[in-house]
From TrEMBL, chains A, B:
InterPro entries tied to this protein: FAD/NAD-bd_sf, FAD/NAD-binding_dom, NADH-Q_oxidoreductase
GO biological process: aerobic electron transport chain
Lineage: Bacteria, Bacillati, Bacillota, Clostridia, Eubacteriales
Provenance organism: Heliorestis acidaminivorans
Transmembrane residue ranges: none
Membership in a protein family: Belongs to the NADH dehydrogenase family.
Residues covered by the FAD/NAD(P)-binding domain: 5-323
Required cofactor(s): FAD
Gene3D superfamilies for this protein: 3.50.50.100
Keywords: FAD, Flavoprotein, Oxidoreductase
Name recorded for this polypeptide: NAD(P)/FAD-dependent oxidoreductase
Length: 402, 402
């Protein structure tokens, strides 16, 4: 029996969890596991808004990959994927290296979707990676530090485009961060604006109306300016132009962060699969259409929920469950056994509004306030435990020690 | 007997120390003391290079003025001086207020001197205030954070123009800071350049050659690139163009900090006194020429040292001694007593090269290494003690607690 080459692309939630499951499930004879990732570290995308706001440091949100994988079982390659050649069953890397595979797991994550809005790509930030989150943090700090010299009001205007999960969580962190920034840079807090712009009529689409209202009122009472039912028409070096029907309005701001949409990594479309918003509609066993050797999971994949007839939302908990199923199906393939249908279970979701407020729904039950804050920490800490056991939990976990 | 109005402009070393002496020397009947300063805080100009490099936080280098003055004795006005009208004995402030005086102390400090070098004003930073130092720190951090996205080598090039006291002390801090920055922003330290450009043939003019060599070798061994005997011809948005004779060379750098010269505050020239590099040649009792009611001290004043026939250098220790003399002479004026000639004493000087190395001359004796580091701390701590007693020393002093 030949040892199978298993290649995993990306070490986000999907890639790292698939790797961890495979290194337990497979014997050395069954499979050689290779993991490719751009950075030497893994991070939690769902916490990047804290790094971007500056309320938490990026080192609390990343862990070196070789600290969580079994380096005797997994070959980690720090490199960038340039091309997936499915016919030749190989992957080309930026360094010039080529990796061959018998089975491929594509877990390359998301990109911001700008829907062709002019200027967004050039003049706005997106909360997409540790590097970009850190850039946002430093940009805000630098702009606040320059305020005393240039004294332009728009230097203190922070525009967040999009009122989905990430947008609102980021706004929540900014509410908490601004007083600290004002103290650090000797700025009058009343001059700072936090502006949230959303094309839809409410924030947090998909959440129960009472949670939406709770979050909206909480943030509004803390000074957040909401522009709902407004499209961003253009983003310029000076700010954004928003429109409602025929009415246009300019909001001047040195900082614009776009959280209004994501799509699958564009590499996935480039390798020939049919995609919608960069995402491949995978089969029930998570394999790509017409290719029995390629699994696609996480933000690059669309998997339909049979119960609702709608795709599962792109989220960490769904991806983590896909990763486990993906690893089991690879094991089944190697053993010549039938593959399982993967049916992730939606257990609930909690959105934080800074470190002291949150809203959510857990096992069908609505929670707000302290309960939701505690639940959010439990979710984050549970992930760390899954990832790196008790040691990692102690190192990076969210605890308040009294 | 009429109570005299004593007005002190500026709360740097000179202004704050004059205030502290006067509030002790004068009775309430003798004089009403008013202190005007742009900021609510006093800071040590000689430590700003640490704030600019980011090795020390600005809050360790500033103290609220109302924490050190006796607010029952001194009227503190936070405002900016716009004009001194000597004929009318009044001072116009930015807020529109006018202050009348019987005796005026001008202690408005320095400005960077750019010697007409094109572009320096627009494209370089100077280490002149808390606001500007913080701006330098944030600019470097933000540029390093953006490096992963733009990957231009010049983003990691730090040019320091001038190898005098401030320039070299700043370079010393940068040497210490760069490894920390590289860790924070995931940058390979070997890509970062610290470049010092000096028109003269050596660094630290005025220091003993053995100290100059010691400092030069220490910094060079830590990777600092020195361009000595080179003038900065132009500063551009891309860096600097330096010249040696007819040879020109461009050094690309996103960060250029100019420390190559200072001059007296330009307000002093505007009020009609003859000045050279913005400094008034004062009489031996520290009064301005032809005006018996105005004292000028610190970086706005030139006082000649009779022993050497040369002016005292603009330095904190000379200014602090002038402040004491100035207060005593105001007291003498009020009493109708003869004024003293002020002869500051040069006790020595220590230049730090980061927190773990220093060079200096103290009471005529050359010191380097640990001795000099300790002496520098003693000097800084002694000033805090003079300024705010034991409490302030405990709060802001430089100690290593084991």
């Amino acid at each position: 029996m030949k040892t199978a080459e298993i290649l995993i692309l990306g070490a986000g939630y999907g890639g790292i969890m698939t790797t961890l499951h495979l290194q337990k499930l497979l014997s050395i004879q069954e499979g050689r596991i290779t993991l490719v990732n751009k950075h030497r570290y893994h991070y939690q995308t769902t916490l990047l808004h804290e790094n971007a706001a500056g309320t938490a440091h990026q080192d609390n949100n990343r862990v070196n990959i070789d600290e969580v994988i079994d380096t005797k079982r997994v070959n980690f390659v720090q490199d960038e994927v340039c091309e997936i050649q499915t016919a030749e069953k190989r992957v080309l890397l930026k360094s010039g290296k080529t990796l061959l595979y018998d089975y491929l797991v594509v877990a390359l994550g998301f990109e911001p979707a700008t829907f062709g809005i002019p200027g967004l790509k050039e003049h706005s930030f997106s909360i997409r990676s540790i590097n970009e989150a850190r850039k946002i943090r430093e940009h805000i700090q630098c702009t606040f530090a320059r305020y005393h010299h240039e004294k332009r009001d728009e230097m203190l205007a922070l525009v967040v485009g999009g009122a989905g999960f990430t947008g609102i969580e980021f706004v929540g962190e900014l509410v908490e961060r601004v007083p600290v920034l004002c103290k650090e840079y000797d700025i009058d807090p009343s001059k700072v604006r936090i502006i949230n712009i959303e094309a839809g009529q409410t924030i947090l689409p998909g959440f129960a109306p009472e949670l939406v209202n709770y979050a909206y009122n909480y943030l509004k009472n803390r000074g957040v300016e909401f522009y709902l039912g407004r499209m961003i028409k253009t983003c310029t070096p000076d700010g954004v132009i928003i429109a409602q029907g025929d009415d246009e309005e300019e909001i001047k701001a040195d900082t614009v962060v776009w959280t209004g949409g994501v799509q699958g990594n564009s590499l996935v479309g480039q390798c020939g699969f049919p995609t919608a918003r960069g995402r491949v509609e995978v089969r029930k066993d998570l394999r790509a259409p017409h290719d029995d050797h390629i699994f696609v999971i996480g933000d690059c994949a669309v998997l339909y929920d049979e119960q609702t007839g709608r795709p599962y939302p792109p989220s960490a908990q769904i991806t983590i469950q896909q990763a486990e199923g993906c690893a089991e199906n690879i094991k089944a393939l190697l053993k010549g056994q039938p593959l399982k249908e993967i049916k992730p279970e939606f257990k609930g979701t909690v959105a934080s509004l800074g470190s002291e407020e949150a809203i959510g729904i857990v096992f069908g039950k609505i929670i707000v306030g302290t309960k939701a804050v505690i639940m959010k920490k439990i979710i984050d800490n549970r992930y760390l435990y899954m990832l790196g056991g008790f040691n990692l939990l102690l190192k990076k976990g969210k605890f308040k020690l009294f």
